[in-house]
TrEMBL record:
Name of the protein: RNA pseudouridine synthase
Record-linked InterPro entries: PsdUridine_synth_cat_dom_sf, PsdUridine_synth_RsuA/RluA, RluA_PseudoU_synthase
CDD domains, alphabetized: PseudoU_synth_RluA_like
Residues of the Pseudouridine synthase RsuA/RluA-like domain: 25-181
Gene3D superfamilies: Pseudouridine synthase
Amino acid sequence: MSKIFDTFIAPPCHEQIETLYQDDHLVLINKPAGLLSLSGKNPQNLDSVHHRLVQIFPGCTLVHRLDFGTSGLMTIARNKAINAALCQQFSQRTVIKKYSALLCGHLDDNEGVIDAAIAKDPALFPLMSICAIHGKPARSHYRVIERIYQELEDRTLLPLTRVQLTPETGRTHQLRIHCQQLGHPILGCDLYGGRLISGTEQVPRLMLHASELHFVHPISEERINARHASPF
């Protein structure tokens, strides 16, 4: 097994974390794009969701993560017991996650399913790859919201499709690599083709936002239906 060296240095994130809900057991936040979920091993990557929140909520832990470039809803457990209870919901796939995204090009179908196993490949790090032999099962649903044209600086029109993505599984980079597999990468995705079309090189961020999170509160047993509108 090849040793993996992560040379990524995150640029400073000046946006604040938005706290949407909190009680004695958990915190629900809106993560800004361009902020790590967890601090990296490199001391230059100290700033993260966890680093910021543990100073406000001592002992808090992340139940799940969002990619550095992804914004949106995250659940934070305020103690180990709550973390274990929420992690169980994620592992049993009873948590429903929905994402808003802008994809390059116009999709032919209004909805569909991407079923493609995803594998780690140390030689390609940090990229993941589609691999039916060594990959773990991964399944994502997509639904078209609208097909639009965005005018670029040179007045050319860039075709884009706004979609809602619903992952059944939670593999690393799943939605990003599945959209690439579909032939319509997420706009602004530097790893999986979202900056290759002329005029997309300067897109300010990954156009992927965790817009809905549905789960059961471990203590009250009430259904939490969290929604946060996409900023793009």
